[in-house]
Amino acid sequence: MIELKQLTKQYGKPGRLTTALSGLDLSIQKGEIFGVIGHSGAGKSTLIRCMNLLERPTSGEVWVNGINLTALGKKQLQNERRKIGMIFQHFNLLSSATVFDNIAFPLRLCNTPKSKVEQKVGELLALVGLEEHRHKYPAQLSGGQKQRVGIARALASDPEVLLCDEATSALDPQTTDSILKLLLDINRRFNLTIVLITHEMHVIQSICDRVAVIHQGGIVEEGPVTEVFLKPRHEVTRDFIRNDQLSDGDPFTTLSGQPNERTVKITFLGAKTYESTLSDVVRETGVTFAILQGTISKIKETPYGQLIVRFEGSPESVNQTVVQLQKQGLDVEVSS
Amino acid sequence: MFGLDFSMVDWQEVYTATMDTLRMLFASSLFAVLIGLPIGVMLYMCARSTSVWIRACYTVLSFVVNILRSVPFIILIVALIPVTRAIVGQSYGVLGTIPPLVIGAAPFFARLVETALNEVDKGVIEAAHAMGSSTRQVVWRVLLPEARPGLVAAITITVVTLVSYTAMSGLVGGGGLGDLAIKYGYNRYETEVMIVAVVLMVVLVQLLQMAGDRVVRHFTRK
């Protein structure tokens, strides 16, 4: 659906160039929710603004729905942009227009007949749950309501892609969750491709199918959220996950074991999370264990668990336990 | 009181002067806004262009505006006499003062427009571009409506400034309240006439400012 090829963006005058993106490649599939996470200044905002050419890349190509946007003229680009919705961190609503007029804005741009506008805006107001606020001005709404107006406005022109530029970063946690739920609902209902950038791992974990981690203008890690989240390979990714879990120190790497002890990290994914595999195996091998740290939660709809446990027993039986767990399809990593 | 005798005031003359002032004010404000608004929009747009040539145009336009604004109005009236004659056919009277008033006030108003447009949230303009708006649509549907309170305030300031400009029109026989105050009150020591003229101008400015503020409040949604 979206294809970025060798995207490079530099700012400033020759001699004093800052590189925001350097030769970045990215491919986003139709109908998926794709998240881009990165620290501020990593280039994520530039990246998403390049997808509808609000920011023109210095070099490289942007393909959306089979069309090379970078090769289009002004007029054609305007037409293509109408098929790409966008929502913003600060909502960017017209303060001089009512909720109704804000949502009608994209429709009126292409001279949609009045009755059609009335009908479409009515549908959208119902979709985002703001029917009773249609005559209010943005200043009279809460942050979450403003973002709902933003979403309705972005959907008015029936786009194929929705770009979310830090769409929940200005909202409180509860409102964030309700907006994320709405985005997920829209994604399923219209099979709409959603690209979102954020600095919150929580956002990625709640609704994204795939994620890319951006650092210093390049993508350092990319893949299904479950994979990247449970088996982070890059330091930056680990940073995000650590911050999200608010743990101080990882017992897996910091604890030194006694001769008869082994610290292991067990990862459960999917239905296995709720099975009694661990207790079944230790009963069989006669090993005892203590849980040092653990999480059991969900990534989007997939349950997962990650436990750091210390096994105590003879070296053979501990080894046997590890092998048994792996046979049951769990991912087991043994601390060295 | 204070040895003033208002029975000496020729009220017919005061009425004529008031009407002259209002006519000059209305015509010059109208044209100053009609000419200044597009120039202000142009200044705003050119300053933001990525093209080197358009930014060069901005520098030139900005320079011309600055020159017109730095010439004292009294000099402008005299210097513009040939231009005035070419436009309205006469360089004296109420009609003869309108072109210099417009040329004096339009650049001033254009700068105020530019400032008002600068106040518009950049994010909203960006959102309009993202939705596929053309430049024309951005100006008409985003920039001008969003800047409306600022634009009304700019019009108020310009009209009030024009009130004091019209006072100088006496130089070319333009008449009006300012002229009345100088001719009778200052030159002929008829303090009463001067007081009446000045009070009327104060009342006029007060009314204009109040009306302007009211409209600004009406359009403000923040």
Automatic annotation (TrEMBL), chain A:
Cross-referenced SUPFAM superfamilies, in alphabetical order?
ACT-like (SSF55021), P-loop containing nucleoside triphosphate hydrolases (SSF52540)
Keyword annotations from UniProtKB, A to Z: Amino-acid transport, ATP-binding, Cell membrane, Membrane, Nucleotide-binding, Translocase, Transport
Can you list the GO cellular component terms from the UniProt entry? plasma membrane
GO MF: ATP binding; ATP hydrolysis activity
Which PROSITE patterns does the UniProt entry name for this protein?
ABC_TRANSPORTER_1 (PS00211), ABC_TRANSPORTER_2 (PS50893)
What would be one Pfam family of this protein? ABC_tran
In terms of InterPro entries, this protein maps to: AAA+_ATPase, ABC_transporter-like_ATP-bd, ABC_transporter-like_CS, ACT-like_dom_sf, MetN_ABC, MetN_ABC_transporter-like, NIL_domain, P-loop_NTPase
Tell me the ranges covered by the ABC transporter domain, including all copies. Answer: 2-241
Q: Biological process GO annotation list?
A: amino acid transport
- The organism's place on the tree of life at top rank: Bacteria
Known SMART domains for this protein? AAA (SM00382), NIL (SM00930)
Q: Which family does it belong to?
A: Belongs to the ABC transporter superfamily.
UniProt protein name: Methionine ABC transporter ATP-binding protein
| Source taxonomy | Bacteria, Bacillati, Bacillota, Bacilli, Bacillales
From TrEMBL, chain B:
Keyword terms, alphabetized: Cell membrane, Membrane, Transmembrane, Transmembrane helix, Transport
User: Per its record, how is this protein called by name?
Assistant: ABC transporter permease
Which parts of the sequence belong to the ABC transmembrane type-1 domain? 18-212
Q: Short name of one Pfam family for this protein?
A: BPD_transp_1
Instruction: Name a biological process GO annotation.
Output: D-methionine transmembrane transport
Q: Which InterPro entries match?
A: AA_ABC_Transporter_Permease (IPR051322), MetI-like (IPR000515), MetI-like_sf (IPR035906)
Q: Gene3D superfamilies recorded for this chain?
A: MetI-like (1.10.3720.10)
Name any GO cellular component annotation. plasma membrane
Q: Does the keyword Hydrolase apply?
A: no
UniProt similarity note: Belongs to the binding-protein-dependent transport system permease family. CysTW subfamily.
Residues that span the membrane, as ranges: 24-46, 58-81, 93-113, 151-173, 193-212
Q: Where in the cell is it found?
A: Cell membrane
